Structures are given as C-alpha cells and as structure tokens.
Amino acid sequence: MNKTGYSRKSVKPVVSLTIDGQNVQAVQGSTVLESARKSGVNIPSLCYLREVNIVGACRICVVEINNLPTLQAACVFPVSEGLVVRTNTKKIQDARRAVLELLLSNHPNDCFSCSRNLNCELQALAHELNIREIRFTGDKTSIPMDTDSAAIEREPEKCILCYRCVSICSKIVTANVYTMLNRGFKAFAAPAFNRSLADVSCTTCGQCVTVCPTAALREKDQTAAVWAALADPDLHVLVQTAPSIRVTIGEEFGMAYGTVMTGQMVAALRKLGFDKVFDTDFTADMTIVEEGYEFLEKLQHNGPWPHLSSCSPGWIKFCEHFYPEFLSNISTVKSPMSMFGALAKTFHAEALGIAPEKIFVVGIMPCTAKKYEAARPELSDSGMRDVDVVLTTREFARMIRQAGLDFVHLAEEDFDTPLGVSSGAGTIFGATGGVAEAAIRTIYEHLTGEELRQPDFVQALRGMDGVKVANIKILDKKIKLAIAHGTGNARLLLDKIKKGEEMYHFIEIMGCPGGCVGGGGQPILAKKQRWEKDRDYRMDRADALYRIDEQKTLRRAHQNPAVWEIYRQYLDHPLSEKAKKLLHTNYFRRGKF
Amino acid sequence: MQDCFQLNEKDKRFIRLRKSIKQLKEQRGALIAVLHQAQEIYGFLPEKLQEHIAEELTVPLSEVCGVVSFYSYFSMKPRGKYLIRVCLGTACYVKGAGEIFAELSERLKISIGETSADGKFTLEASRCIGACGLAPVLSINDEIHGRLTTADTVKLLEAYRQRRSGDA
Amino acid sequence: MHKQEARKSHAKIKSINDLAKIKESYKELLSMRMAGQQYGKIFASKRSALAKKGVTHQLLICRGTGCDSSDSKGIRDALKKELQQAGRSESVAVVETGCFGFCRLGPIVVVYPGGTFYCRLQKNDLREIVDEHICGGKVIKRLLYHDPETYEPHRQAEDIDFFKYQERIVLQNCGLINPLVIEEYIARDGYLALANALNSQRAEIIEAVSQSGLRGRGGGGYPTGRKWKFAHDAVGEEKYVVCNADEGDPGAFMDRSILEGDPHSVLEAMAIAGFAIGARQGFIYVRAEYPIAIERLQVAISQATELGLLGKNIFGKSFEFNIELRLGAGAFVCGEETALLRSVAGFRGEPRTRPPFPAISGLWERPTLVNNVETLANIPQILLKGPRWYAAKGTEKSRGTKVFAIAGKIANTGLIEVSMGTTLREVIFQVGGGIPNGKKFKAVQTGGPSGGCLPERMLDIPIDYETLLAAGSMMGSGGLIILDEDDCMVNIAQFYLEFTLDESCGKCPPCRIGNKRLLEMLTKITAGKAAEKDLALLAELCTQIKAASLCGLGQSSPNPVLSTLHYFREEYLAHIVDKQCPAGVCKELLSYGIDQEKCRQCGLCKKVCPVSAISGNAKAIHKIDAQVCVKCGECAKKCKFDAISRRRS
Ligand SMILES: Cc1cc2nc3c(=O)[nH]c(=O)nc-3n(C[C@H](O)[C@H](O)[C@H](O)COP(=O)(O)O)c2cc1C
Ligand code: SF4
Ligand code: SF4
Ligand code: SF4
Ligand code: SF4
Ligand code: SF4
Ligand code: SF4
Ligand code: SF4
Ligand code: SF4
Ligand code: FES
Ligand code: FES
Ligand code: FES
After folding, report:
1. Which of A161, A387, B23, C285 is 20 to 30 A away from residue A308, measured at CA?
2. Is C97 helix (H, G, I), strand (E, B) or coil?
3. How far is the CA of A169 from the centre of ligand 6 (A)?
4. What would the 3-class secondary structure string for A450-472 be?
C-alpha cells in the first residue's frame, strides 16, 4: 500500500559486529539492542519501545562497546562494521543493578496494592536482575495523584521518566499531551502545568496507559461500582461486550495472542451475576444499517464528503480538539456501545417491563475512551445515562480473578437474545478497516443486490499500514475509501484532505493503532515483551476476529434478523424520527489545549 | 490551580509581544527567543501567556510549558520591582556568597525564588555571571555589584529601598 | 549600555587590498597603544597622522563586565567631563576596551603613550590624571599598582607579575582594541586569515588546524582539526557551524572576556570554519547571563555584515556565511553539545547519546561543527602565523596556550593566558600572587563541577589535558578555584553536588537520582551522622554514576567527591569518626561557647538567641546549653566583646 506515500521502506546494507564473542550480521541503521535480540542475546531494557520510544534514558540496557570508557545504551547505539560489544560483564551488571536500585529508591513500595502488581515492567526487571536489597535511600518525589479524568488516572510518584507516554502521545496519537516538566530530581512526565488529564486535549485513548511500564498511568478502576450493582437486588444488570474482548481476554489468563474465548467469556459474565449477557456486535450491526442509510443519502445528494466514521470515542475527541472543521462530516450515528445503552433502557426495558432506572448497563470495552464517552452528558437519550459503567478488558479480568473463576476451563455459553445476536460484520469492527469493510458489504449489496466478492479490495482494507486507501465501483459510482488508525495517521490523512490534495467518500478512523484490538483498555503484558516480538501482536488479535467472521454464516449486518426485528417493533425504519433520537448524537468543538 | 492572569489585547505589552512574535516567527526553533521577549515584556510567564505563545507559534502547549520549566531563567511567578540575583557560583561561594544570600534572605524575610511582601524585591541565585574576579557578586536588575561584604549588602539593600518609583 | 562611537560607514571590502587600506588608516592609533616607549619617535616624525589631527593621548578604559560592575561607566563619563573642562576632548581619545584580565583591580585606565596602568580608580582621581598626567606629563604614583609584598609601584602592566608571565594569543586584543570598532580589529590583521583562507583549498585549512595541534578548549580536548575533517567529510546539503558560548562553569569567564573584548576573532574563525567544512550558516549560543557580550556580538555581526565580511560574496568570492545569535536561558547542561543543539532548536536542553556525533548529525539532523569560543579565537592566529608557530608552544600533547580564570582564595584573581605545561604552582604563586591574608594553600579545584580538587603535593604537575585527567581532575574550561585552610573539602564536594543536582537535566536515573543520593550522603557526613562504612557506598555510587550516565554531566559529576575522597580522606574521617570539621565550616559540627574572661554579662546574646539556649543575668555568668543550641551563630555576631567563640567541637 505504498502508492499513497504514507509509509516507506528501503533496503539497507548489512554490517557485521561481534556481540559477546559471537559474530552477528545487522542492518545498517539498526541498533545494538535490536541486533542482539535478533541473535538471541537478551539485553534487558526499560524505556525502549520498538518504533515508538528510542531515547536511551533509563540506562538499563547499558553495554560495553569497543574500548569506550563509559557504558553505552544498546537501545540507541547504532551498529557499525567491526563493533565489539559485550553485554554481560561484571561492570555492566553492577551498573544496571545500581541504576535500578536508584530508580527503586525513589519509588513507592506499593506493589501489594498496585494495579500493576505481577504485571509491571519495573517489578519484573527487579526480579530479572535479582535485586535483593536497595542500598540507596533518601527523599522521594512527592506529587499528588490526578484522578479527575473519567478515563485515566496518573500517579506521578510511580513515574520512572521513561518518556514512553511522551513519545506515544506526541508521535503516534499526536495529541501532544505530555512533556517532561522541570529538570533534575524534580522532573516528571505530566501534561502542561501538571494540569489534570481532564483539563487538557487528551483524547482519553489510553495509549499512554498501555505503554507505561508502571502504574504511573492507569485506567480509572470501576470494578467496585459493578460489584455493587451486581449485589443490588433491585437492579437489572446488563452487560455488553465489545467485539474485540473475546479475542483478548484470554491473554490475561495465559492464552496466546488472538485466542478466541467467546463462550468462556459469556459463561464468566453469567457466573459473575449479570442478568443478561449481550453483545455490542449486535449494535455494531445496527450501526452499519443506520450509517449505511446515512451514507446512501449522502450518495444521493453527492456529499458532503468525506463521510467520517463515528464509533471510536478516542477519534471523536481528537477531532473535537484538533479538527473541529470536520465535525459536521462525522456520521451522527452513535457508537455501538452507546446505541446499545439507549436501546437497553428503552426498548429492552419496555420489553421486559422494567423501569429504566432499574436497569444498569455495563460495557466491557477495549477502551479507556469509552469510559469518557459513557460520561458524556449528551449521551442520555433514554432520559438517563445510556451506559452506567464501562470496564476495560483488564478490569474485567480482575473481576474474573476476584471471583475465583477458572476462566480458561469454563464451559462455553451463548449470548442472550435478542441483543446478543450478531453478524460477522459486527465482529470485525474490532480491527482497523473492519467498519469500512462491514459498511461496504451492506452498501454494495443494497445497491447491487449482490454479495460483495472482491478479495483484492477486501485485502486492501485489512492489515496494519497506517493509512489504507481503496476504491470500489458500485454500479456507476466509484467510491473512494480511506482508513486510518491511530490519530497520528488520521492527522496525516485529514491534513491532506484539508489542503485539497486528496478526496474520499468514506473514511474510517479508529483512535487506536490497529483499531480496538490495540485499544487503551486491552491487556498489558509486561512479561511477554509484546513490544519486542517481531510480529505485531495486534495482527494476531485482528486475525482472530477475521476467523470468527469467516466461521459465521451471518456475515452481513443487514442480514441480522434481530436488527430488523427491533426496527419492526420499535424504531420503524432506519433514520426514522425515533431512530434519530435514540441512535444519533452530535459533537462539540473543544479547545486545542 | 490556574493563575488568574488574563491577556488583554489592547494592552501595550500585548502589542509589543505581537510585534516580536511576528519578527521571530520565521526563525526556526523560535520558542526560546519568544519566551525571552515575553518575559522581558510581562516580567513573568503565566499560563495564559504560554497558551497564547503556543497558539501563535503552533507549538504544543505541553512543549512550551516543558521548556519554561526546564530553564531557570524563566519564571511563572511575578517578580518584584528589583530582581536580586546572588551569584552562588564557586568563586563567589568560597568568598562567602552564602552568607550574603542568607543575610538578604533574612532581611527580606523571603527564601529563594520568592518576592518580598511589599513586592519590591525578588531573591534568586545565579550560577556565575562572569565577574568572578570581583567575587562575591550579586546583580540587581541590570546592575552588578562586586567585592561585597555582608555589611555592604545591607547598605545596598537600603539604597534600593530608598529609591523612588521611576528611577529603577 | 554605552553608545557606540560614531563610525563612518564603509564600502564593502572586496579584497585583501581593501583590508590593507583600513589597516593602514588605523595603524598609528594602534601602534601608540602597543609600541610603548618607542612610540614617541613615530609621533615626533612628520608622518604622524595623529599628530596632524592633534591627538596626543589615548586613554584606554576597561568596559568589561568586571569593571562595569565597579562603575567603569561612571568613570568614563567623569573622565570625559574632566577632559572637556580641561579643553582636551579633541586631543585625548577615550577608548573603551574589553577585559584586561585583572578585574579585581577595576576600574582600570591605561594612558598612552607609555602605557601607564592606573587601577582601582575613583571618580575624584580623574581630575588628577587629566591635570597631572595628561597636561603635566607626570605619572601619579598613588594610582599605580603596588606590589602587595614589596609595596613597589609598577608603572606599566608588563611590570606586574600578573602580566609578566603571560603569553597572550587568544587574549592579544582584549584590553587593547575597542571591540565596537571593527577597523581596530582589522588593523590587528583581523579578517586577513579569512581572506587568505578563501584563496586556499579547504583541505589545506583543515590540515593547518590539525598540524597546529589545537584541541577543544570547551573541556573535552578533542583535536579540533580532526573534528573539522569529520564535519567536512560528512554528507549533507546543509551544514552548520555552532559556537559554544554557554560557558556554564562557574568561576570561568574566559569566553565572556573574549566575546566582550574581541568578538570579531570568533566571527572570523566561524566564517573560516564555515568555508572549510562547507557551511553557510553559523549560530552562536551565548548564555543570557552575559548581556554585554551579547550586545557586542550583535554590533560586531552587523559591522562585519556591513563591510561584507559576513553575508553573501565574502571578499568577492562566491562564499556566503551568516551568523545568528541564540540565547541560553539558564541551564548548565546546555553547554553539552547535544543539549546545546536541542536548545538552539528551541527545545528542552536534554542531551542525547552520541554517536551520531554532531559533526555527522547535529542541528536539525544536519552535520554540525560545534566549537568553543576560545578554540575558535585561536584559529585566525594559527592561520596567520602558521601551525608550526603554534605547535611549538605548550607540551607534546597539549599545544599552544590556555586561558585560565583564577579565583577564590588568591591574591590576583583574574584572567590569564599561559603556555600549556605551565605548572599549577607557577600559575598560583607567580602569576596569581599566592594566597592572601597569610593563609595556607589547601587545594586547587580545576575543571569546574566536572573536575577535581588537587592538594599541595600535586602543584608541580604541568597543566595539560592528560596530566590533569591522570590526577583525577580535568582541564575543563580553565577555571581554577583556589582554596585555603578555611575551606572544608567535604563542604566543597557538597557544594558541587548541589550544583550538578540542580543542573542535571533529569533524563537518566544515575544522574537524576544518583546525584541526589550522593548529596544526601555528603550532607549526612557534614552533619556528623555518617558511619565509616558509608564511605565505601559513597565511592561505589560515584563509580556507577560515572559509568552509567548518559552525558558528560553525570559522567563527571562525582569527580569532586572522588578527588576529595582520594586526596583529603582524613578530612572525611574527621567528620565521620571525630565528628569534627577541621576547617570549621560545617555548621552542625561546631559548638559555641562563652569565654568567661571576656564576657561582660551584658546579656545581648541571651536576647538574640532564637532558642533560649543562653542562661545568665547581670550577676551570674552567661552560659550556652549545647543541648539546646541550634548553632545559628547569632549570639557570636552580636557580642561586642568577642566573648563567644565558634569551636570545632
Ligand atoms: C555538562 C557539560 C557542560 C559543558 N559546558 C560547556 C561550555 O559551557 N562551553 C563549552 O565550550 N563547552 C562545554 N562543554 C563541552 C561541549 O560539549 C563540547 O565538547 C565543546 O563545546 C566542543 O567544542 P571544542 O571542541 O571547541 O572544545 C560541556 C560539556 C559538558 C558535558
Ligand atoms: S508500579 Fe510496579 S514496582 Fe511500582 S508499586 Fe506498582 S507494581 Fe510495584
Ligand atoms: S514476596 Fe516477600 S515481601 Fe512479598 S509477600 Fe511474599 S514474603 Fe512478603
Ligand atoms: S508516566 Fe509512565 S510512561 Fe510516562 S514517563 Fe512516567 S513511567 Fe514512563
Ligand atoms: S489518553 Fe491518549 S491522548 Fe490522552 S494522554 Fe494518553 S495517549 Fe495522549
Ligand atoms: S479504537 Fe477502539 S479502543 Fe481505541 S478509542 Fe476507538 S473505540 Fe476505543
Ligand atoms: S547525565 Fe544528567 S544531565 Fe546528562 S542526560 Fe543524564 S540526567 Fe541529563
Ligand atoms: S553578648 Fe558577649 S559580653 Fe554580652 S553576655 Fe553575651 S557573651 Fe557576654
Ligand atoms: S548559636 Fe544560636 S542557638 Fe546557639 S546559643 Fe548562639 S544564638 Fe543561641
Ligand atoms: S532501554 Fe536503553 S536506555 Fe532505556
Ligand atoms: S562565580 Fe560568581 S561571578 Fe563567577
Ligand atoms: S573586566 Fe576590566 S579587567 Fe576584567
């Protein structure tokens, strides 16, 4: 997908060097750390994050190079012909341990009650380097926590200044929220003026949380609210699970990336005590129908183009802060989660004859931004909050552990109906390109009466290229599509559109790299070194979604009988008055800062 | 948390700032130069001013703030009429600058980085102003005073106290 | 600041000939200042242009930062007034110069012809100078420099020990020319080296710099020629020359003096470097603490541009070179070259690891040559007089001369330039005049916060890069702080740690947290709360900080601790084991007591004690309760009878 100039790769010459006496070939421009790892020598690292954060700050990866008097950080040291590297001498071990002891001497010893306990890179490193004593003691950094954001909490005292959040938020997310503040011992990572994340242009995407090696950044844990609701006999507690949860929750229990655990997940939720276990995939199908009709209308009136997808709250908030001029191009269709909430407290409430106040809707989402979305005041078309609590995949796993369930060995169960019926189209929402593919499947069939069968076109929509573009001819209309994931890629795309260099009809934008499979609420697996793996772990997760889709007989959203049943019983037809009230929303311009 | 400072577009200082931003904008990496100008004009760099600069230079606010908090020359607190910087560089230190600093701190009842209650004096430390031959030295606004004793310092402080507004 | 003398604007200089013309027209003005006694003959001859104009004298007045703080501006104004009153405004030229080096003696006025050196002037001395010396031809003994030991007056600067042993290459124009008048620089062969360079091959220039043996004066001592060659060989459409004028080392002020006193030497060298490596743009990163230097650089750049010595088509050739100033903002670490380049680009001054070195990838990822002010100021002289001439000075591995700033407990604080290889003893005792007030020398600190402290027994080592390093210190920028028996070495180490911790950028843990822990350990020692085993941990921490830190700041920050620990271990032990501070500096190890013989029972001390540690009344003796006393020292300050003593407990 190189035509667009969004990514570039070139072949580089190879050099040879010696690592611990072993002769090693490496590509020019790569680093000592990368080439060592490729040849099986594992140099410990802490701040390094492949392709994102290569700053040489933490000094854990130090090695001896040639006869240089000081130790060098392997993660930033470029390979060159004839380099002689030693990675494990006494001198190196002593230095690494001293550096780590120093870090620990300025760290709260909170492991017992810390959200990252047993899944913390700092803690894991202390174990790896066999730290048995912290010889250095003294004053510790003392900065209050920031708990104002609906999505993310910061605990600066656990910050080890690895720069990962600064890098990911400026390079990948391009919201530029973080900086290092102050200098010397007083330095720490924070938003401008150490403002709360609630008061800055944070998209709440949570990418920073997934890369933070410690608990300095973490989701706002709301499991207690869910336990309380479950324990309340007066409440009818519903749960909906986003498409990607079924392929990631297993990782929390030792399964490989991309293991499908749908049945176990449903079973676990029932065991936790939810009254109904529904599927957000259902409203994803519904989204496609509503948005499909919206798009067909635009097609009829020829615009306004481009039409932008709306299901990712990270992307929506990004647009509200940085590209308000595009707000009117965004589909007014609510995200599947919020649509679900609205239907649960209206349609479902009526169907069951339960007062909507007694219905408590929990969303299990891959996403921290959904916590923020659920708290948006305008998303209360049922007369109250559409969704009461959003839990991330990680919090869900915590509840499973707390309940003592043997998750992996649970007997598989099925979702409840009707809000649990879904097509494969709804499922692939969880991967970048999925929304576009699902939408085209429906639009194509609606216009031509035939099923979409164009493997090349479909392939172009999938995969991890930052910006993907594809054209499709439907009858006499040529429709141009673009897909961006990660708001940094969205920025590249929108800037080109703004300058008039490019034009598209349909654009899918996902806030997180890889889409929801790379969401800010997904499992963080410190010890698996997911960033060190050659293959992108998000590809594994996405492939699992495509596998589910393939195995389904129901693969197009508009085929979902439950969707039409609701229109028939309750909403009349797509884009009806009632549908507009319950299933659509609007957006707000927000300050750049 | 946010300070109450507001930018006023009709303010003379604002017009001056706008002019210097316009001049410096084309220069690559102009942020530090603009901050110098802004601090010279307003005396300090409150949040609103930094937001304005971020907007004008299309630099993220986090970056502006990161830079301001990094360099000791930049201050986010308003300073007094007279900025006293006692040199605590080595040459001055071994010649007793520490005692001079302590004396001033005691007399003004403020510690490092603070401004006296009457708003007249701000006390800061500097790290060598290149007049080491006259150690110990201190500067008050643009004037440098060298070869000081604590007694001289007290006299100097009195002299500035007596200065009427206008002859800064 | 002071106004520039009205200067006629000149047509652009296009050739060496144009340069020579300017030189010629300023020649006599300068020879009056240089030829000393012999000047009389020229002046008497019919050829004298000055005589025709009726100019009989020149008064050089130092307007460096040092002298300005001793009100040399007021002195200048007063001097002009006196001259006017005496009707000599026309015939006596007042020339404002940069630093002479002997700042402690400021304000300084030198009267030419003859070079009579008047110092420590006050406004009411000036009438005497005008009346007696200018009009009456009599030297005023009272205002001359008097040798502190023999009390002999010295008339000329060259007679004074402080100047006698110096060899001035870099400082040759400082205190001699008016830095605000480019023609005076040209009259000293300024810009001739650039003109010649533009007529030679780039490789030749780089070869000459290499042959001279010049090494970086910014501290690292990296061979300058080799660095130029790297920058020359680096591929890049655009390259930059950056002058490091951050001079963060407290106690060092050579770069400041060069910039104030001879700014064109740096500009010329940058243009030569630009030509040699293929750069068209230069930046000078100068610290904001140097307003005078900044102003003079601005004037110098605009004058050079006006004359076509900067800008397009320099000397009529196709070579273009421009220079911009960038101001620092108070961060020592920005002297480190990678941090400096970040700061030039407008970011936080956080260093990054090298490689890639700036010469390959520097400012905005382009090949960038970073050189220190003093390094650059050597270049024109090396090219004019030849690399062999330069290489003949100094030692085998450290060629040429070096400027040192001597400060602290020394008689002649100031700036000196001596040959590399001069011993510390010579610098301190001959040039520097030894330790004042009859005190005993204890240590000399070289290399600033990155350097170390050397004791008496190391005084005979020659000053060069390798020897200092081997002794556990370093050359650094050339600051020498002399310490006497009243200085506590643990306290000095603690002072440096406070500095480095304050100035650490915070990027890497060994420096950010390590130095904090180091400082806490030292504080424990000076408070008498440490145990002997702590010394091993202290040394271990030093070693690890040096080994693992990202940049030179952290890699050298433990040096003051390591060197004092090495040379003054017994002082550490005195604090730890005996709970004593031998120098009587560390507050918490002092005890206050009242000498009953001297005490007159006046009760003043009792009144001021903040913690009521003193008992006694008009009849009963006054006593300090050591358990209560917080060692604030207030009582001792107040006692009029000197009855309260500070003891090393
Ligand atoms: C912490 C630190 C501070 C430094 N400060 C200065 C400085 O103030 N001035 C300077 O010229 N070089 C300074 N240097 C050295 C520079 O990094 C660099 O080596 C030098 O500017 C190169 O010029 P040279 O080769 O001409 O010496 C410093 C280095 C370190 C590590
Ligand atoms: S962040 Fe990691 S090391 Fe720190 S308290 Fe939590 S688990 Fe322990
Ligand atoms: S690991 Fe050690 S510290 Fe932690 S609970 Fe067990 S015994 Fe206690
Ligand atoms: S908050 Fe986390 S990611 Fe950011 S610098 Fe601190 S430790 Fe690293
Ligand atoms: S949540 Fe996203 S936008 Fe907000 S600070 Fe983290 S990475 Fe940046
Ligand atoms: S891509 Fe998915 S996980 Fe990320 S913000 Fe959007 S909805 Fe949330
Ligand atoms: S050694 Fe110190 S100054 Fe240098 S990068 Fe590390 S923290 Fe910053
Ligand atoms: S002030 Fe001096 S003389 Fe007076 S009581 Fe105290 S010690 Fe005695
Ligand atoms: S030193 Fe201070 S505390 Fe101690 S006796 Fe004197 S005045 Fe009181
Ligand atoms: S991993 Fe290399 S310095 Fe942090
Ligand atoms: S150390 Fe104080 S002026 Fe240099
Ligand atoms: S400033 Fe005048 S002699 Fe140094």
Report:
1. A387
2. strand
3. 15
4. CCCCCHHHHHHHCCCCCEEEEEE
Long-range contacts of A114-120 (CB under 8 A, 24+ apart): A114/A158, A114/A215, A115/A215, A115/A218, A115/A221, A116/A214, A116/A215, A116/A218, A116/A524, A116/A526, A119/A524, A119/A525, A119/A526, A119/A527, A120/A213, A120/A214, A120/A215, A120/A526
Residues of A marked active site are found at: 291, 294, 311, 331, 370, 373, 378, 516
Q: Confirm or reject CATH 3.40.50.11540 for domain C189-391, answering yes or no.
A: yes
Contact in structure between C434 and C459 (CB atoms under 8 Å): no
DSSP, res A25: E
pLDDT over threshold 50, residue C152: yes
Under an 8 A CB cutoff, do A592 and B70 touch? Answer: no
- How many angstroms is it from C629 CA to the middle of ligand 1? 46
Domain definitions of chain C by residue range: 16-159, 189-391, 401-578, 591-648
Neighbours of C279 (CB within 10 A): 25
Nearest CA to ligand 8 atom 8: C599
Q: Does residue C594 line the site of ligand 8, with CB under 6 A?
A: yes
The verdict on the CB of residue A489 being under 6 Å from ligand 6 is: no
CATH architecture of B82-162: 3-Layer(aba) Sandwich (3.40)
Q: Residue B145: list chain C partners with CB under 8 A.
A: 69
Cβ neighbors of A68 (< 8 A, separation 6 or more) are: none
CA–CA separation, C145 and C118 (whole Å): 7
Cα→Cα distances A21→A62, A138, A448, C593, Å: 17, 40, 65, 67
Q: CA of B62, closest CA in chain A: separation in Å?
A: 4
pLDDT (average), residues A345-362:
95
Tell me, using a 6 A CB cutoff, whether residue C389 lines ligand 8: no
What separation in Å is there between the alpha carbon of B141 and the centre of ligand 12? 20
Q: Are strands A276-279 and A236-241 parallel, antiparallel or unpaired?
A: parallel
CA dihedral sign, ordered B109, B112, B116, B121: positive
CA of C455 to the centre of ligand 3 (A): 50
Tokens matching residue C26: 């300023």
| Predicted TM-score of the model (pTM) | 0.94
- With a 6 Å cutoff on the Cβ, whether C592 touches ligand 9 is yes
Write the residue in A178, A182, A183 that is nearest to B62 by C-beta.
A178
Domain limits, chain B = 2-70, 82-162
ipTM of the complex: 0.94
Q: Which has the higher per-residue pLDDT, B31 or A529?
A: B31
Kindly tell me if the per-residue pLDDT of C216 is higher than 80: yes
Q: In this model, does residue C503 exceed pLDDT 60? A: yes
Which residue do the tokens 């969401």 mark? A519
How many whole angstroms from its chain centre is CA C450? 16
Rounded-to-integer distance, Cα A543 and Cα A538, Å = 9
Q: Which chain B residues are closer than 8 Å to C496 by Cβ?
A: 90
Q: So what's the architecture of C401-578 in CATH? A: Roll (3.10)
Query: DSSP letters of A329-395?
Result: GB--BPPHHHHHHHHIIIIIHHHHT--GGGEEEEEEES-SHHHHHHT-TT--TTSS-S-SEEEEHHH
Q: Please report residues of B whose CB lies closer than 8 A to that of A168.
A: none
Mean pLDDT value across chain C = 93
Q: Which CATH architecture has domain C591-648?
A: 2-Layer Sandwich (3.30)
Query: A441 and A556 in contact (C-beta within 8 Å)?
Result: yes
> What number is the average pLDDT over the span C345-359?
97
Looking up tokens 């700092």 gives: A122
pLDDT tens, residue by residue, C53-77: 788 899 999 999 999 988 999 999 9
Q: Pick one of 3.40.30.10, 3.55.50.30, 3.40.50.150, 3.60.20.10 as the CATH number of C16-159.
A: 3.40.30.10
Mutate one of A136, A163, A179, A180 to test the C interface: name it (highest C CB count within 10 A): A136
